[in-house]
Amino acid sequence: MQHIKIAPSILAIKDLSQLESEIKKLEAVKADIIHVDVMDGLFVENKTPFLDPKITEQIKKATTLPIDVHLMVQEPENYVDSFIEAGADMISIHCESEGDHHATIKKIQAKGRKAGIAMNPATPIEKILPFCKSADFILVMTVVPGKGGQAYIEEVNNKIQELRQLFPNKEIEVDGGIKAENVYTPINAGATIIVSGTGIFNTTEYSEKIKKMKQAIIIGADHAGFQRKEEVKHWLHENKYAVIDAGTNSEESCDYPDIAKKVAEEVSKDATRKGILICGTGIGMSITANKRKGIRAAHVTSEYEAQMAKQHNDANVLCLGSRTINKETSIKCIEAWLSSLFEGGKHERRIGKMEQ
Q1: 32, 37, 40, 245: which one is catalytic?
Q2: Which of 31, 12, 101, 23 is nearest to 60 (CA)?
Q3: Which of 93, 100, 345, 354 is most buried when burial is the number of CB atoms within 10 A of its CB?
């Protein structure tokens, strides 16, 4: 199962004299990657100060986070060596740029770095496909490259979805116009690395923005629940929730404890996430999930039970039975659970006892 990573783009930092202190702030609020946009004024209209590898070297000294260098340059092979020496951990080149991209990808990988292949919004997907298999990750621009603050181009979602289907286990990075309010869009299309510039740096509350961007509902089902899972996913997508699918996608035999453990493990790692588990009755899923520390899995059969699961028990995993309640009731349960708030108070004490 792919993990969602947030990569703040330092292109949006207005005062580069504060670069190191800003990066320390990003580390403190659990950003995953530092994204560096390198523009040469030829491949795109603008030129950025990050064209100088010394800034990447400065960043490397200031952080332990991976540094992701996005080369929006005409001849990327001329820049790769200097950015590797500067400490870049990930380097992406554009399929629309000049040069032997296969050779450049191999060159980056030979130095122990991850190599990415990038594409612009208007580029046909066929142009990037020859390089995707050998690249470590794929970067899809969701705005026209060259400047920050643009609106997300919705039409690019189809390309993200197609790339995810073709390369189910590869990291897909998206860059441009992404904020906490619309991050569900690329995640639901299949993106796993979210680049955001003004979406993070336009406020002093980096922690709150990144926390919201990482929020996701992880959903899993066994062979008895996978059809209901697809119906639930459709509802969640329509209602603008970011969803990560943990499986299963067919009627092939699947043991529900495996799926329950996978979802419980992911939810327990990050308090911003919630889980939904669906099997024939929902009972086995709840028993298995609750064996994981930090998990409060509630098996519910009605809207009221789902409401109480959140208000009194702060349930972070909801377990449903595809054979015991219908689709409409399932949706009502999920809606009640998501819209309810934990009441705290005396219930906080009870939560503590659950964890003992």
Answers
A1: 37
A2: 23
A3: 93
Evaluate the CA torsion angle 73, 79, 82, 88 in order and state its sign: positive
In the predicted structure, residue 356 carries a pLDDT above the cut 70:
no
Asked about 37 being catalytic, the answer comes back as yes
Delineate the domains of the chain, giving CATH numbers in brackets: 5-214 (3.20.20.70), 216-355 (3.40.1400.10)
200-221 tens-digit pLDDT: 998 888 989 999 999 999 999 9
Annotated catalytic residue within 40, 68, 175, 314: 175
Q: What does the pLDDT look like over 295-314, one tens digit per residue?
A: 999 999 999 999 999 999 99
Q: Could you tell me whether strands 114-119 and 90-94 are parallel, antiparallel, or unpaired per DSSP bridges?
A: parallel
Contacts of 157 by beta carbon, 8 Å cutoff, 6+ apart: 185, 186, 189
CB atoms within 10 A of CB 52: 13
Q: Compute the distance between CA of residue 73 and CA of residue 303 in angstroms, rounded to an integer.
A: 54
Could you confirm whether 175 is annotated as catalytic? yes
